[in-house]
Amino acid sequence: MSAEATNPVSAVEPADADVAVRRRGRPRIDLRRLGRAALLGATAGPAPRDRLPDAISHVADAHRAHHPEADLTVLRRAYVLAESSHRGQFRKSGEPYITHPLAVTLILAELGAETTTLTASLLHDTVEDTEVTLDQVRREFGAEVAHLVDGVTKVEKIDYGAAAEPETFRKMLVATGSDVRVMSIKLADRLHNMRTLGVMRPEKQVRIAKVTRDVLIPLAERLGVQALKTELEDLVFAILHPEEYETTRALIAGNPGAADELGAVAEQAAAVLREAGIGAEVLVRPRHFVSVHRVRLKRGELRGCDFGRLLVLVAEDADCYAVLGELHTCFTPVVSEFKDFIANPKFNLYQSLHTAIAAPDGTVAEVLIRTHRMHKVAEAGVVALGNPHMGQVPTEQSGVPAEDAERVDPTRPGWLSRLLDWQQSAPDPDTFWSSLRADLAEDDEITVFRADGSTPGTISLPAGASCVDAAYAQHGDAAHACLGARVNGRLAPLSTVLGDGDAVQLLLAQDGASGPSPEWLDHARTPAARIAITGWLEAHPESTPLATAEPRPQVSIAADRRSGAELHVDLDGEPPTAVRPAGCCTPVPPDAITGFRVRGRSVTVHRTGCSAVDAMRRLGREPLPVSWGDTAQGRVTLVAESFGRPGLLADLTEAIATAGAAVVSANVEPPTEQRVRHTYTLHLPDATELAALMRAMREVPGVYDVSRARHRTSGEPRGA
């Protein structure tokens, strides 16, 4: 918003940003032309009642392209109020401030937003930055517009101080829970500010880009607004990873013939479909910068067809499968690339068939097959679904047929319902902010079935969730009394990680007197579970009493008898029954470490930087001084993130063996979106060589990250 208003020259070169925009058919807004029009409008008086002011005519044209019968009178009134209230205000570039709400409104108009959203977009900064009040907006434009404007209005920094940004996002997300159009306006607002971030101080550019990466881009993904998400990704990529961005830009500039190579395959595919009598539009769809970067990490050297994909648009769902059949018959299909997101839509409403075909000359091209309706929803997400409060939006306005009317209200998908539930329990802005970033960092969702036959019959959870998460999602605070679970009919510990489609029956103690163990925090992935467990442990410190006996002399205890690593522990009170390295951070020599007593008189040792250490301290746990003994060997768990390819497992294990480590156990998760996660528990004869081992694993082609096993937190962007 106003705090981010800057120069019209983007941190990304304008030519690059224009390329990203032209790929989606959206012309860039000419801020100088709008500025002149706004100034002329300010001096020449209001426009006649029978036409819109010149400065907003382009918005009207874009809006009428999607909604031919739209009444533009309310847009004219909103523009007049916005222009007059912002008159005399300028962006840091020197442009009249009215150019910002105009640009945001144009972005939404081109995505197909309805009139109410555009009205609120024109007014979205008035309550925050001018003398206009929310009551005035409500009187002149109605409760819906007022709700949208209020939802994107920042809280006062003078009231909240450093907590203003987290509390603003909390307020915005709560408003999104009742009307998803709030987030649509915020995403368009952030996109325009990211386009014009160039005159900000570098450190402020980085701060804004990180929040965009950690919060706004995941929200755009979850709401299915790919047109905004992809451009935001490129703008963030250029600021946070300038070297990789320049490399990617050079690759694209150095392959001007890539479109021709894809175009040749497109012509062959179009000819095949014409001969089969299938009415289809075959387009070449260039990849954006981050997408090219991801493909380069996956495949190494890029070929011409790697710089884009083919997009096939048809009229009906059945035509999608007809196209697939013809392409797989007349070309050689790459079976591993096939995905059906029509029969199994993504949780953000995305539907499409994905495949890859090899032409007779050996050229391999990825292909997306979808209907025109699916394409509109894939690009604009919830924006394309119109007003969520209308029982049924006409086909010509929303792009959604009447038979799909139940999909028009996307305001409470599973991820948003979970977010709205746990945010109420977040005790402070810092907890909310860190939990929000961690929650949004999850890439996918799973659905598990409640085996007890209760209603609703399913629970939506982030991928990687455990029985602990399912317990709190189903029972709330009553899950404190959970004793165990049955997964697919078999008894399972609460630490069991659930898969999509699992049937879960949670077993609760009847007396309700028991409570969660601190170790549950090691298995909880959802903020709702972590906040509830932490709150109970803080309220019941007596549940984990610390021994109060006289201190005993320092003793040496094997932390893991299988690995032979030794620890020196300053014991306080009763001697521990066991000392073990924490599974969440797998410490090995020479890591800096600290220990904590847990239930059963045992001691768990963590790396000092582990998030569990802060959680223990907040619970009032006193750390135990621990140190490594003379033995340098140890056991560690590493997670290798990679792009799937033949021979990858063999190459990784060879790199591990060459480094002198022994594989104790290994687990390879099923590929997801062509990505594979390998988890290795390794015995290291000399733990000081861990860094060299991790470097050797990262050098294996296809591996893009190797890390110590830990709870996932928001970190680098998915594509960088």
How would you describe this structure to a colleague?
With 720 residues, this protein is of the alpha+beta class. It contains 27 helices and 21 strands. The longest helix is centred in the first third of the chain and has 21 residues, at 202-222. The chain is globular, with a radius of gyration of 28 Å.
SSE arrangement:
Layout: H1 14-22, H2 31-44, H3 57-66, H4 73-86, H5 99-111, H6 115-122, H7 126-129, H8 134-141, H9 143-152, H10 157-160, H11 164-178, H12 181-195, H13 202-222, H14 226-240, H15 242-253, H16 258-275, E1 281-286, H17 289-299, E2 308-314, H18 317-330, E3 332-333, E4 339-340, E5 353-358, E6 364-371, H19 372-380, H20 395-398, H21 414-423, H22 429-440, E7 445-450, E8 458-462, H23 467-475, E9 482-487, E10 490-492, E11 503-508, H24 527-539, E12 555-560, E13 565-569, E14 578-581, E15 593-598, E16 602-607, H25 611-618, E17 626-628, E18 634-643, H26 648-658, E19 662-668, E20 675-684, H27 690-698, E21 703-708
Parallel strand pairs: 2-6, 7-11, 14-16
Antiparallel strand pairs: 1-2, 3-5, 4-5, 5-6, 7-8, 9-10, 9-11, 12-13, 13-17, 15-16, 18-20, 18-21, 19-20
